[in-house]
Amino acid sequence: MTWLTGVAASPGVAVGEVFVLPGGSLAPPSDEPRPNGTHAEEQLARFDEALAVSHSRVKQARQWVDDARAQQAAAILDTHALMHEDPTLRAEVERAIRDERLHAEEAVRAAIEALREPLLRAPEPYLRERAADIGYVGAQILRGLRGELTPLEPFERATIVFASDFSPVEAVHLHELGAIALVAEHGSATGHTALLMRSLAVPAVVGVRGLRICRDARVAIVDGVIGRVALDPDPQELAEARARVERTAALSDDARAHRDLPSETLDGVRLTVHANAGRPGEAEHAAELGAAGIGLYRTEWLYLDRDEPPPEDEQAALYVSVAETMKGRPVVLRSFDLGGDKAARFASIEAEPNPALGLRGLRFAFAHPRLFEAQLRAILRATSHGDVRLLLPMVTGVMDLRDVKAALERCRRALEDEGEAVGDLPVGVMIETPGAALLADSLAAECDFLALGTNDLAQYTLAVDRGSRLVGHEADALHPAVLRLLAQVVEVAGRAGRSVHVCGALAADVQALPVLIGLGCRSLSVPVPEVLLVQERIRRLDAKECRELAASALTRHNAAQVRQMLRGRRPEDT
Ligand code: PEP
Ligand code: MG
């Protein structure tokens, strides 16, 4: 069995047969067929035909996502369709064929490169994403020229598709053919393909290094929650993963029966399980599953991929609708965590050598006071519609909190002068930097609640860029250094009488659950599809045993040893 680590791109677990997508660098090399014909008209006709086939494939995928009512996916595919209709592309290919006497293949490559090149150098991630989309369109037209766009047969058995990369169109197509999960060597969690897979609820792991060895594998487990893939798993792992898949399926079939059961361990320790949300429809789904509330609403999603910032009224309407959907259950709205890898198109952000350490989170908010103020006003306006709370990202100390509270006060007074009803707004801080973790006592003294962001806490504690293809897999929050900070924060919050919930990926990592319970965590916030599974897992654990496991985890030397220990093996075996 081989475990490979990548970036969790779309949550869920799948077990299936390995299928390597033909044509990519993972597939065995095949001789590139030589282009036929040399006559310009012939080359142009070949191009036009390939363009039409490629275009119709996009339109077909667009129809499928329409049927699945996945709005974000539809918008991405619309962009791909527009790229096929772009007269510049056709004109550039024609020019290269006629003037430079290139074959259609060469002309397409040159035209796509010319369109992509300036975007690739742009500092804004959304422009680089656009470059990726143009690249996908080009690759698909080239496949059309090679006659490779003939449809694959639907998969007869549960199949996991592996490729060097998936275009959004390809991903939808494979999903339609029955692929139950996707694994790619390239791509990122913020890429369009990942976004599309999430909206279609297909588990996916991307950015997996060393994927070439999958060619010889038969069966795989994909864990899209923590971003791991097992090739030819041993019988124990396979049985566990199958049981997890079955439990998830049974839970969703029987959601109503389970959703009202308390999330209580065998020895009576009660936890609450909230949901993370931020994309359209997620709050409704969380409410349907009976989540205790929204523990993390990532408001930055509203700001990405648009030319203008969302107006205050639009934001207020969204926050009100989330609060009303949750019917009095807490809704924790995190103020926008923009900057870093989540750059807003409308804010021209200077490229920085270390964006994760640059203008992001609250720093970005303070640098754009009008933008921040509009959001604070919108959040305050939602307070009279439910139990709305504000959570601050990337806090490093008490002064951050005080500055936000002063801004909130100004917004509150202005709204009241305008005759707007404003209710209470508890303010919490994300503990996701070592600075905040070490100063948790002073933060707890001035805020209403704490939220542990294990993704960034691991990134900053271990000095590992969580998005890095080379080292991202090492940002594992089960590392004892991160666990020690976590334990410290839980203890400090308890002493100060403040609630603390874990909302990073570790909260949904069923392997980590006993450790979190053992460290005293009593409140979790997990991706919506994981809510029922985590609740069900809690009911099978014994808190006393969890304390022993947690104590043992704190003494290990790295995350791998902690994971081995949790799988019931001796650390010396690692
Ligand atoms: C985290 O850092 O753990 C977190 C929940 O925030 P995000 O993943 O949105 O950075
Ligand atoms: Mg974070």
Summarize the structure in words.
- With 574 residues, the protein is of the alpha/beta class.
- The chain has 2 domains: 25-145, Enzyme I, Chain A, domain 2, CATH 1.10.274.10; 250-573, Phosphoenolpyruvate-binding domains (TIM Barrel, Alpha-Beta Barrel), CATH 3.20.20.
- The protein is built from 22 helices and 17 strands.
- β5 (179-184), α7 and β6 (204-206) form a beta-alpha-beta unit.
- The radius of gyration is 25 Å and the shape is globular.
- Mean pLDDT is 89; it is low at 569-574.
- The protein binds phosphoenolpyruvate and magnesium ion (MG).
- Magnesium ion binds at residues 432, 453, 455-456.
Core attributes:
574 residues; alpha/beta; Enzyme I, Chain A, domain 2; TIM Barrel; eight-stranded mixed β-sheet; globular; disordered C terminus; binds phosphoenolpyruvate; binds magnesium ion
Tally of individual helices: 22
CATH class of the largest domain: Alpha Beta
N-end to C-end Cα span: 14 Å
Indicate how many domains the architecture comprises: 2
Low-confidence stretches: 569-574
What binds here, in terms of ligands, is: phosphoenolpyruvate, magnesium ion
For the record, the CATH architecture of the largest domain stands as Alpha-Beta Barrel
Tally of strands: 17
Strand content: 5-15%
- Chain-averaged pLDDT: 89
Q: What's the gyration radius in Å?
A: 25 Å
Task: Please describe the topology of this protein.
Blueprint: E1 2-5, E2 7-10, E3 13-20, H1 40-67, H2 71-85, H3 87-99, H4 104-120, H5 125-145, E4 159-163, H6 168-176, E5 179-184, H7 192-199, E6 204-206, E7 219-223, E8 228-231, H8 235-253, H9 255-259, E9 263-264, E10 270-277, H10 282-288, E11 294-298, H11 312-325, E12 331-334, H12 362-367, H13 369-382, E13 388-392, H14 398-417, E14 427-431, H15 434-438, H16 440-446, E15 449-452, H17 454-462, H18 480-496, E16 499-502, H19 513-518, E17 523-527, H20 531-538, H21 543-554, H22 559-566
Parallel strand pairs: 3-4, 4-5, 5-6, 10-11, 10-17, 11-12, 12-13, 13-14, 14-15, 15-16
Antiparallel strand pairs: 1-8, 2-6, 3-7, 7-8, 9-10
The structure holds phosphoenolpyruvate and magnesium ion (MG).
Residues 432, 453, 455-456 line the site of magnesium ion.
